[in-house]
Amino acid sequence: MSGVRCMLMRGGTSKGAYFLAGDLPSDPAERDGLLLRIMGTPDPRQIDGIGGAHPLTGKVAVVSPSAGPDADVDYLFLQLGVEEPAVSDRQNCGNLLAGVGPFAVERGLMPAGGDSTSVRIRMVNSGGVATATFPTPGGAVDYAGGTAISGVPGTAARIDLDFAGTAGSACGALLPTGRVRDVVGGIEVTCIDNGMPVVVAAASDLGATGYETDLSHLRDRIQALRLAAGELMGLGDVAAASIPKTTLVAPPRDGGTICTRTFIPLRMHASIGVLGAVTVATALLLDGAVGRDLAELPPPGAALSIEHPAGRLDAVVELDGTAVRRAAVVRTARKLFDGTVFPRSSP
What we know:
This is 4-oxalomesaconate tautomerase. Its EC number is 5.3.2.8. The chain is an alpha+beta fold and 347 residues long. Helices cover 14% and strands 33% of the residues. The chain is built from four helices and 17 strands. It has a 17-stranded mixed sheet that branches. The longest helix is centred in the middle third of the chain and has 14 residues. The two termini are 14 Å apart.
């Protein structure tokens, strides 16, 4: 059985398999079938593949030289199902994004640029461009460092992700409904997309505090809310999609800006996605948005600290009215394995 060159990496608070596009079939259906077999889907344990039996560890980054002059590499994110043989390209992943720059240098798509290297990355899923800056002393990626991020044990090298302008939009607009606030099923929400389509709602409006560790009893209400919001946001029928995400907000209780509980799409996130946090932070800066009245906003230009079940994620967002000028976050990544992966036989 022939294998496929693969690098397994932790990117932020996610884990995924990174591939060069040229190492995978060019036909999307054939590619997706191969990736499902590599990950071991469908199977709740993914026992016959390299998936980790969880949505946060069932991710794939497909990287290639950029097709345009404004980026160095193109990054296609694919979310694979665990129990269902599903592959979705309808959303970004800002956590796996953290590993794309180092992966590009490791694979020779970009030369190391001295003590640090910056790689411009086009996020194919949304069209946004991010610049990743990370240490490369001696011309090699250095994953060791003293930066800690919530949800990951230990420390690693700092990776700065900077988004000039919007981080992209699957919906085609920052406010896809054209309004800062909507009412969906009797719940006031803000539907927003700065790199990740998110439905922001006050936890109290769903009978929650927003500090819970288990909100599985809200599954049906969250599904009804996001199905209706997905239509309003121009995403169509999202019953089988992982977007939009739903984020419940509450006043901060640990010195941050806001407290969040996010669903992906119906399972409560152990932390919060990078672009989900950026999008929630963006909403908090808009007059009239859900959550703004609950937030402890920092001075203009300072990072907004988004509390989540595993800690905090700090995001800098700069707006000009309702136009995004810039967003930035700090992440870490680490190479876990580099070699050849062997998929199970078809089907």
